[in-house]
Amino acid sequence: MVEAPEDNPYVRDPDTSFAPVEEIEEETAREQVRDLRAAIEYHDYRYYVVNDPVVADRTYDALFDRLAELEEAFDLHDENSPTRRVGGEPLDELETVAHVAPLLSLQSAGDADEIRAFDRRIRETVGEVTYSAEPKFDGFSVEVVYEDSAFERAVTRGDGQEGEDVSANVRTIGSVPLHLDGAPDVLAVRGEVYMPRSGFVDLNERRMERGEEPFANPRNAAAGTVRLLDPSTVADRPLDVFFYDVIETSADLDSQREAFDLLRGLGFRVNDETTDVGDVEAVIDYRDRLMAERDDLEYEIDGVVAKVVDFAKRERLGSTARHPRWAFAYKFPPRTGETAVERIVVQVGRTGKLTPVALLDPVDLQGVTISRATLHNAAQVDDLGVHEGATVRIERAGDVIPEVVEVVADADADRAAGDFAMPDTCPVCDGDVVREGEHHYCTNASCPAQLRRSLQHFCSRDAMDIEGVGAAAADQLVEAGLVESLADLYTLDAADLAALDGWGERSAENLLAELEASKAVDLGTFVYALGIRHVGTERARALAAAFSLDELLDASVEALRDVEDVGPEVAASVASYFDTEANVETVERLLEAGVDPERRDRDDELDGLTVVFTGSVPGYTRSELTELLETHGANVTSSVSGATDYLVVGENPGQRKRERADEEGVETLGLAAFEERILSRL
Ligand code: IVH
Description:
By secondary structure, this protein is α+β, with helices and mostly antiparallel strands. It is built from 24 helices and 24 strands. Strands 12, 13, 14, 15, 16, 17 and 18 form a seven-stranded antiparallel β-sheet that branches. Strands 2-11-10-3-9 form a five-stranded mixed β-sheet. Strands 5-4-7-8 form a four-stranded antiparallel β-sheet. Helix 16 crosses helix 17. The chain starts with 25 loop residues before the first helix and ends in a 5-residue tail after the last helix. The relative contact order is 0.07. The structure holds 2-(butylsulfanyl)adenosine. 2-(butylsulfanyl)adenosine (IVH) binds next to strand 3, strand 8 and strand 11.
């Protein structure tokens, strides 16, 4: 357990009413920055590692914002500041760096007798041993190096000798310590970065919302994320890490137990299932237990690892070029089986994607009966040569739906590939189907298969901002038959709504009021709300700036392509959306219902304006204000100069900036004027 930093005012019940930055001296700022960093690192540890935070989220945010504000105002940046957890500048490429010691891999087997043979060879050399039994995490292995107790770098495994420098990305993981207290001079550790199951599901949902391909499994998602070039994207993704090995240290360690104690004591996240066991039979029992429990864990594992606990014995056992002789992995069997394909059907997913699915003669895969498996896309059906009647091998990897991986026997080989073709129209709604690369999509946003998702998206905060229509309510509205197209939202009736399970008059009235209020909307937001594939908020705004709604309905692919950031794929997606009659009808009905998308060049309202703040504006933190103004084109700076347009004077303002504004002839705005002249324009 890591101790709280002593005499630090920001650890327990911190006072978050800070003096305006312009009123404090540089020396005070430095001290505050130092204390805030230490406190925030401790709060990260309590939140991400121990799972027992000492401050409320709001307090944490206030400390974090204050630190960011001071770093900005006094130019006190540091790569290992907790503010870097939200990501830094994008990189051009990942650099290759050598490991402090080779990162070996493990010898492994999936059969108990082979495991007993590993154990026998170990005992033949060093006599009886105790094993450290650990889950074998199915993630992405990294080396993390600390110098002078500070995070120095994180490196991927690569070829075992050298890997890629992914420091900026690994720093964004909240549970990775940035500074260590009482660490040995030399310390390099190894761990496995993974994506928690729930985070993986959310991430895929968000990707699908944006029309991006979901990741196949958490391992791919983690591996893809760790190697991204933009750390801010990484910071938005739910990664975590378990540490399991000290690769190099000046500390005197005699056993794996001491290694784990060292790691834990320094604040590294270590897995709770890890335990010492007396012999190989106990390793086998441990593996059987974890195999039965694997689906209940928040992370994926593909076996267990057994390591000789005693380091003196490890020394005597030694290593080959590739793996240590003192450890082995006992893998779980792949969840695979063979069965016959009864039929191939086409399923429409919530994103409108058409997926060929094999209906199978039911087969048991380790206790789970499988009767359907995905074939991914039409090309895959062809490549595998799957058709009705063929015997196929199926596999279930982690949480993901089972897939057909190969044809093992084919009674009717003449029939093979070429039999299967994707339909031209959606099997659910008859809407037009478009092809994008390997995939096919239904273009009708009111297709029943997509409706729940379109509805939820339409109502979401960045879209029409209709509060009260989340996943559950969207399901209810569709299931009760009240909404068959997005436009039906505006003809909802209070009595029908109030009769829904868990609703009442109040919630019905609230929703109707929200709907009414949503009718006045700007065109960009409306276009985004329609849920056109590949059209996020930015592109929607660009489209709305380039076209009126009428023009957009008829825009050609070529005209669409002239819009910034609209490539061939996006243009085709927009064009086919508005070629689909059902969508045009939905738009027309929305307009008839009173939705009034107004064209205005949102977000350019403050273009070219340079604003400086002194003092606070009630209801906003400084970083929220900065973000708000900057997304509308303004430039928010920390000092007044001749280039400043306005100095906004809030509560508890500082002296210096006002004097500067006087000298430079810069106009000052009080809170009321700020509200009227700037905020009201947004
Ligand atoms: S120890 C020298 N322990 O499995 C021993 N590895 O080849 C170094 N892995 O890529 C590995 N969980 O990243 C160890 N509890 C665990 C592990 C683990 C997962 C990974 C490791 C390596 C692969 C085995």
